[in-house]
Write a structure and sequence with these properties.
alpha/beta; 5 helices; Rossmann fold
Length: about 130
């Protein structure tokens, strides 16, 4: 079975996104990154390309790398929340690397996101 996963998160934590990518690749995943964002392309182009990755029928899992940003724990920005919404609509399994981001907790819980609490080993259990 080929495992694929799409990573999402703020570009301010891109080092952590790349660290998570490496860890998941060691677990046998093909990891799809928001590469256009990492390359600095205009937001409208980068977002569209990444949404296409999320909705691709070959990709069942989406992992949100919600690190602390500017002293805000488990941060999920507006663009990442839009990606979560898209993944939810297209019935993808959505994981949060860290705990729930409090401002969006109602939606995150209601949409069935899976909280890994920082433990990537749990991604294969659920």
């Amino acid at each position: 079975m080929h495992k694929r996963i799409v990573l999402c998160g703020s570009m301010k934590v891109k080092d952590k996104i790349l660290e998570v990518k490496d860890c998941l690749e060691k677990k046998g995943y093909e990891v799809l990154l928001p590469k256009e964002c990492l390359e600095g392309l205009p937001k409208n182009i980068a977002s569209r390309k990444h949404f296409e990755r999320i909705i691709d029928s070959n990709n069942e899992k989406v992992l949100i790398v919600n690190e602390t940003k500017d002293n805000i724990e488990n941060y999920i920005g507006p663009n990442t929340f839009a990606e979560i919404s898209c993944a939810f609509y297209f019935n993808k399994k959505i994981y949060l690397l860290n705990d729930y981001y409090v401002p969006y907790i109602d939606e995150l819980v209601g949409w069935g996101t899976i909280n890994l609490k920082g433990n990537l080993d749990k991604i294969d259990e659920k």
